[in-house]
Amino acid sequence: MRRLEFWFDFASTYSYVAAMRIDDLCRDAGVALKWVPFLLGPIFQLQGWNDSPFNLNERRGAYMWRDLERLAAKYRLRWRRPTVFPRASTLAARVAASVADEVWCGDFVRAVYVANFGDDLDISDEQVVAGLLDGFGRDGSSIVKRSLEPERRGLLRANTERGIELGIFGAPNCVVGRELFWGEEALEDAIAWSQKEG
Amino acid sequence: MRRLEFWFDFASTYSYVAAMRIDDLCRDAGVALKWVPFLLGPIFQLQGWNDSPFNLNERRGAYMWRDLERLAAKYRLRWRRPTVFPRASTLAARVAASVADEVWCGDFVRAVYVANFGDDLDISDEQVVAGLLDGFGRDGSSIVKRSLEPERRGLLRANTERGIELGIFGAPNCVVGRELFWGEEALEDAIAWSQKEG
After folding, report:
1. Per-residue model confidence as pLDDT tens digits over A6-58
2. Which of B47, B65, B166 is the mutation pick for testing A, counting most A CBs within 10 A?
3. β-strands A173-176, A3-8: how paired?
4. Residue B60 to chain A, least CA–CA distance (Å)
5. DSSP characters over A150-191
6. Distance between CA atoms of B27 and A122, rounded to whole angstroms?
7. Chain A residue numbers touching B169 (CB-CB < 8 A)
8. Interface predicted TM-score of the whole assembly (ipTM), two decimals
9. Is there a contact between B20 and B142 (Cβ–Cβ < 8 Å)?
10. Which DSSP symbol is given to B121?
11. CA of B127 vs chain A CAs: smallest distance (Å)
12. Is B57–A66 a contact, with Cβ atoms under 8 angstroms apart?
């Protein structure tokens, strides 16, 4: 089956918009979706940045916040500019990496994004993350606990290291084979590519 | 009538793709198009860059060149990676600023872009630029000469200064009113906005 990897960081604003759309797009196109959480931090460091480029570059940042308002309206997504940006995303990403093969992984990903960018909640808090899992009928605290066990902690780092090898420099991304598509606007091109190559 | 400004730098790869598409998109949508050449150099300097970010950031640059191959194939545009990047675009931009109100301005803009990114020609050369104008029945050398006269030289700088005020940080851009849309992928959103506001 055609297959597409969706690479995201929970701190990334454009990944929010893309994460809310990608599941439906893949389903409509008959493409199997794999959720791949990773951390932008080490990848930004490779580029000499110790913060989000949207914070480091005021002009770029001002545009992004306005663009997100427009995109949220376009796709009817809940939107509240978070009071902390970027939010520490490691905990939620560890959980996502741990449950990436569960059929409900997409529900969790979307819940975290809405918490961060729709409700301004602290997604670095274990109780917040556990509560999101509880919210769709999972045992949140035990899932979070399991995600932080030593043998699972390496999953997220392995994703990030593979992302570095793939040439990733930002988020979100779709990866089809070794072909990289960066940006919220590239989802449709990535899906078209997966169908061409499939 | 609904109106959209297309802001471009002839050195910009993504502006090439957008410039080849924007005229048809506007015509189909009933939106009046205004060509606005400007220089990225002073705007990059505001962000602390003395070169294209695609040269300064190797990972970002590698992605851009691959992306351009794909976009050129998608839109059936001639494409040859230029041997000089970014090419000095001031001369061609001065000419474009000087002829921005001519009905054939779009023909000139597209000819310059194809010269730079399809044919790897030196668009900073007066004879090359004059030849492009000659190619669609204009008197190239006199148009180039007039564009460089003192009273016309300020047009390009005025555009760039207005771009700084508008918050521009890259290219291409569409501007509708004071609303800024950055990037090759944002053309359709900009047109939709101009229709909503029109």
Report:
1. 999 999 999 999 999 999 999 999 999 999 999 999 999 999 999 999 999 99
2. B47
3. antiparallel
4. 6
5. HHHHHHHHHHHHHHHHHT--SS-EEEETTEEEESGGGHHHHH
6. 47
7. 57, 59-60, 63
8. 0.94
9. no
10. -
11. 37
12. no
CA separation (Å) from A130 to A25, A109, B79? 28, 13, 51
Nearest to A59 among B47, B70, B193 (CB): B47
CA distance A29 to chain B (A): 19
Q: Render pLDDT for B17-56 as a digit per residue (tens, 0 to 9).
A: 999 999 999 999 999 999 999 999 999 999 999 999 999 9
Give me the residue from B47, B57, B74 closest to A47, CB to CB. B57
Cβ of B183 within 8 Å of Cβ of A185? The answer is yes
Burial class of residue B83, CB neighbours in 10 A (0-12, 13-18, 19+) = exposed
- Whether residues A180 and B66 touch (CB distance < 8 A) is answered with yes
Alpha-carbon gap, residue A61 to A3, rounded angstroms: 33
Instruction: Kindly list the residues from chain B whose CB atom is less than 8 angstroms away from the CB atom of residue A185.
Output: 183, 185-186
With contact defined as beta carbons under 8 Å apart, do A50 and A44 qualify? yes
The answer to whether the pTM exceeds 0.90 is yes
Secondary-structure class of domain A3-197 per CATH = alpha beta
**Are B155 and B162 a contacting pair, CB within 8 Å?**
no
The secondary structure of residue A121, as a DSSP letter, is: -
Residue type, A112: V
Rounded to a whole number of angstroms, the distance from the CA of B122 to the nearest CA of chain A is: 30
Inter-helix orientation angle B58-74/B13-29, to 10°: 40
